[in-house]
Write a structure and sequence with these properties.
Order of helices and strands: HHHHHHHHHHHHHHHHHHHHHHHHHHHH
Strand content: under 5%
Number of strands: 0
Helix content: over 70%
Radius of gyration: 28 Å
Largest sheet: none
Number of helices: 28
Length: about 575
Amino acid sequence: MSDPALGLLMLGLIVVVIMMGFPTAFTLMGLGIFFGYIAFYDPSQAFTENRVFELMVQRSYGAMTNDVLISIPLFVLMGYVMERGALVDKMFYSIQLAFRRVPASLAVATLIVCTFWGIASGLVGAVVVLMGVIAFNPMLRAGYDVKLASGVITAGGTLGILIPPSVMIIVYAAVAGQSVVKLYAAAMFPGFFLSFLYLVYIVGWAMIDPKIAPRLPEDQTQVPVPAWVPKFQAAYSHNILVALVKALLSPSKAKQVDAGGHGIGYGMLVKNLCFALVPFTLVAGTMATIWWYVVIHQQAAVEAAVSGVQQLGTPGLGTAAASPAEAGPAREFYLWFWGIAAVLALLQVRYYRKLDAERLEVIKLLTSSTMPLGILTVVVLAVILFGITTATESAAVGAAGAFLLAFHARTLDWKRTKEAVFLTAKTTAMVCWLFVGSALFSGVFAILGGQALVEQWVLSLNMSPVQFMILSQAIIFVLGWPLEWTEIIIIFVPIFLPLLKHFNIDPILWGTLVFVNLQAAFLSPPVAMSAFYLKGVSPPHVTLNQIFAGMMPYMLVVILCMVIMYLWPGMTLWLPNYLYGG
């Protein structure tokens, strides 16, 4: 048998052996050593002098000195601390109340929490199990269709490996030699867009067939309002914002309202006013941050660069007018910015005109349950995307913040801390062994000529870039049925990477398509791990086939998202190109 044929035999055996249940990392190493020994075999040498052992040492050292992998244990620790800290119950309740008037409100709340919690933890199994415990039974008791309830949990739970910070993106960056920061920026919009498509599917299905998601009884959608609030509104105004402002200007009536044995003081009024202004603060703060970064920050950077050039003695640059090529994008930004600002201002006016006591209580619940975790997530992502810290330093910030949140909530004791640290070490060791096995396997595969044979076969097909893109993504999609994402990225993705340059395909765009594609690895039987995670915490009458049936439509949504991403590559490439240059 020729060496290239041995390489293809390696590739076929790895799939068969993994499907038989053998550990992936040790299967890779075992096959690598076996076939590598054959490749380097020299009858004149002793057994221990075979060069495959040198290759194993070199590849292991190279994998363990990869700086990109350092951030993995810290991000994993952040996720396990979040999961062990049990911070999600109150969040689900508050979001469910916020969307109580929307069709399939429980399913919508579940998807939002899955998305939000997936970003914070990045652990698919933890999110699916946690939401299965918290949301699955309430949806079934409310009369929701089993397929709808199971589908939204399993599909929503997989978003954690797509939306940054994601361990999968770090692994791909290490395999492909790409920037983690650019990949994070590229995956941001597609991840949220896929979540939005899931949301459209759920709400649309519920509107077409209301029987699958009956409206909740009034007692389950009623917002608990303190007894003093109606009296306070009667004294000032039904609009709670107007009432709070009037009370601050004229507090005499507020002091006469009984609020638990005492009148309403200035401190309580200011506190409630701050809660009422949270939506305005978030919108205004976001728009101000965008304006600062795009207009003020970048203009200051340009002026500093021009000043530096002038000090070097190059005349005339300081007074140069903006070129038409620069003026066009700037004008487009201003139009978009002020247009969006006007729309948001109108929505804010509409919202505050209808601000009553129930909405204020929902704001309080949302602020107390989601704001700390939201701030931590935004900080972790912002410091990476804006180049303030490296991915490893950002992961350290996230892990420290997770501990602070859990300690503040008084939900993380010594036992749970030990569990989180142990699971982090276990997961990190698994990833490291996978990289060692993959490095040895890919090295032997290339030495045998398997990589060259695959490249020659693909190039002989005379495909266009579109055809290659479809073929590569279709192969990865099919591999997602029997294999998990770790095996696909570590074993099969490196086979396609050398071909991207030939077809002039951006590895950032191709990799982001792979990230979205690999959502199917968790949703496609027979290995669909999300289904087995959910089955472990579901009632006995819910069958695995029902869970599989609920997941299938979301695979079609994943394919639709990939098609839109390819037709509109700007959704993927605009943010990394804007932040770091194309």
